[in-house]
Amino acid sequence: MTTSLALLAGSVSLVGVGAYLMLERSLTRVLIGLVILSNGVNLGFIVASGDPGDPPLLGEYAALDIADPLPQAMVLTAIVITLGTVSFVLAMAYRSWQLDGHDDVQDDVEDAAIRRLAAADEASDAFDLTVTASPDDADDEVSEEEGSDGRPVPDLEESPHEPSPAPRVSRETPVLDEQEDRP
Amino acid sequence: MRTELLVPFPVLLPLLGAGLALCLSRRPRAQRAVTVAVLLAVVAIAGVLTTLVDDNGPLVIWIGAWEPPLGITLVADRVSVLMLLVSAVVALAVLVYSIGQGMTGDEMETPVSIYHPTFLVLVAGVANAFLAGDLFNLFVSFEMLLFASYVLLTLGGTESRIRAGTIYVVVNILSSMLFLIGLAVTYAATGTVNLAQLSLRLQELPDGTALMIQLLLLVTFAIKAAVFPLSFWLPDSYPTAPAPVTAVFAGLLTKVGVYAILRLQTLLFPGSPLTDLLLWVALATMLIGILGAVAQSDIKRMLSFTLVSHIGYMIFGIGLATHAGYSGAVFYVAHHITIQTALFLVLGLVERRAGSTSLVKLGGLARLAPLLAVMFFIPAMNLAGIPPLSGFIGKVGLLGAGIEEGTPLAYAVVAAGTVTSLLTLYAVAKTWNLAFWRTPEQAHEMAVAMAELDQTRSGMVGEQSLMRHRGHVHAGNQLVDEATLREARAALQEEGSDEDLHELLEQRKLETRLPASMVGSTAALVLVTVLFTVIAGPLYGYTDRAGDNLQHSEVYVDAVLPEELR
Question: What's the ipTM?
Answer without folding.
Answer: 0.80
